[in-house]
TrEMBL record:
Domain of life: Eukaryota
Family: Belongs to the CDP-alcohol phosphatidyltransferase class-I family.
Start and end residues of each stretch annotated as Disordered: 1-69
GO biological process, one term: phospholipid biosynthetic process
Name of protein: CDP-alcohol phosphatidyltransferase
MF annotations from Gene Ontology: phosphotransferase activity, for other substituted phosphate groups
Transmembrane feature ranges: 206-225, 253-272
């Protein structure tokens, strides 16, 4: 029992203290005390200082461990899939599923971006915001350079994956970073959809077929995106996914191709204003 041990040791220490004064006259008076005190002070100081310094330095040296242990997933699309999901050969293909390309290129650009100063997920997210603003306001609306806008759509999609890959590679994930990524994605979705609808409405008429088509497409995309955020925020496993969650997951897989198809179709049909 711990209580009995503590009591017995306390009694043993008290009896030793009582016996000590009887033997003290036989020893030298002052020299024995000075010699007995000095080693105890040195012994108390030396072990207490050295471990504290080593313990303070050890966490700093272990910060690089997540980078050393990080291994890219294969196929790369597994970075955004829920628990319990097994990709099919179609989904695992790099070309047939563009989400693999997004995360593959994101893994490639994260170390160089880290080296030049974009060394946190939040910095990459803010940099992607600059790209997105120029995409919508500059390339799409002002310049009407649809080829450049399509290229920037693919680039912003890679950057959208890069902030998450930076968090995984260097262990820099945070709740604020997840919120920032979520809110910037929503803002970009509204900016892109609103600008696209305005351009098609002013060019074809507010009751035209192209406007109805783009409104239906963007509404489905909005539903899928909202369902994806909901599933990720609640950490739902794949077996518990509903139809809207599955729609959002596959939409995320093919988002780059969806952008290209929409932009290419509306450009070839003449439904967008002339450059």
């Amino acid at each position: 029992m711990p209580a009995t041990r503590s009591r017995s040791t306390s009694r043993g220490r008290s009896s030793a203290n009582k016996a000590a004064p009887k033997k003290s006259p036989a020893k030298s008076p002052s020299s024995s005390r000075s010699k007995s005190k000095t080693p105890t002070k040195k012994a108390a100081k030396s072990p207490s200082k050295t471990p504290t310094k080593k313990a303070a330095k050890s966490p700093a040296t272990k910060k690089a461990a997540p980078c050393a242990k990080y291994k890219p997933k294969s196929p790369p699309i597994l970075n955004c899939t829920p628990d319990g999901y097994t990709p099919t050969p179609l989904i695992s293909n790099m070309i047939l599923c563009p989400g693999n390309l997004d995360y593959f290129f994101a893994d490639l650009i994260v170390p160089p971006m880290y080296a030049i100063g974009l060394n946190t997920p939040n910095k990459i997210t803010i940099f992607n915001c600059v790209v997105r603003v120029y995409l919508v306001v500059g390339a799409l609306y002002t310049d009407r350079n649809y080829a450049l806008a399509t290229s920037l759509l693919f680039i912003q999609q890679i950057l959208d994956c890069a902030d998450g890959q930076c968090a995984r590679r260097y262990g820099l994930g945070s709740e604020f970073g997840a919120w920032l990524d979520h809110i910037t994605d929503e803002i970009f979705g509204y900016m892109y959809a609103g600008t696209f609808i305005y351009m098609i409405g002013t060019h074809n008429g507010w009751y035209s077929v192209p406007l109805y088509i783009i409104c239906v497409v963007l509404a489905i995309m909005g539903l899928g995106g909202k369902s994806t955020f909901e599933a990720k925020d609640t950490y739902i496993k794949f077996k518990d996914y509903k139809w809207n969650h599955v729609l959002g997951m596959y939409q995320e897989f093919y988002m780059s191709y969806i952008y290209i198809v929409i932009m290419g179709l509306f450009t070839l049909k003449g439904w967008l204003p002339d450059p």
